Amino acid sequence: MLILKKINNNVALACSDAGDEIVVFGKGVGFPSMPYELEDLSVIEKTFVSDGGNSPDALTSVSDEVLRASSDITDLARANLGCQLAPSLPFVMADHLQFAVDRTRDGIQIENPLSADVARVYQREHSLGVQGLAIVQDHTGILLPTGEAASIALHLVNSELGTAAPARNMDELLKTTKILEDITDVVENQVSFELDRTCYAYVRFVTHMRYLIRRLMKGAPVQTANLSLFHQAARDFPETYKIAMAINQYLERAHNWSCTDEEMLYLMMHLNQLQPREKPTGQ
Description:
Layout: E1 2-8, E2 11-15, E3 21-26, E4 36-37, E5 44-49, H1 64-81, E6 84-85, H2 89-105, H3 115-121, H4 123-140, H5 148-159, E7 160-161, H6 170-191, H7 200-218, H8 227-236, H9 238-255, H10 261-274
Antiparallel strand pairs: 1-2, 1-4, 2-3, 3-5, 6-7
């Protein structure tokens, strides 16, 4: 295997036999003069697919223990989320975790003001974040603050490919998360029962809303020829239409955004899936 560039003593950029750029982790792989041919492949502990960007450079200040923790969290997420994750996730996650570990060692704690919202909106990812704290402790001996579970969850959410457009930055994702929690509150106030945030319908609803919020942020709403279908759906499903209108009113009031009829139609379709098949006791 051709080793191309040193990242740190135990991490290097390499070229696979197939000609792909990869990041390899193994004891001493970064020591020899670059480039060189690594003949003893048994020293390689893990390989990561490079995304072709600057993500591997973030590992220059990351300890081996943190990199292992990030890799294990990524593997756990891939096994449980059922979707493709961005190749840059192990690197971006490791960079964040190193700062979190360093801050914790120095006795500095930074609270995530949206921890509760993240835990409610992204329950699957937050559960993995909680497990991630244990993984970091196993590898580094450092117990991170509980709020870091939300930070790990947000990195997982932003790396999910094929489920929703990744946010351009963490600030955008935090804003989206707060909006999603507000919208969930709007829906629950309308239906008078608590939504099951672990069910598939809610996960799909959140995915759709992430796409919608991104489009509204960019000022690029969807408008096609389905207007007659929207008006028919509004007549056939008046309760669902009422909830969709409540969401649109919140978006207009809080963010000066307005959904088109086409967006309202898709929103109603997802809202209809959130309705329980049987009314809860007492309803």
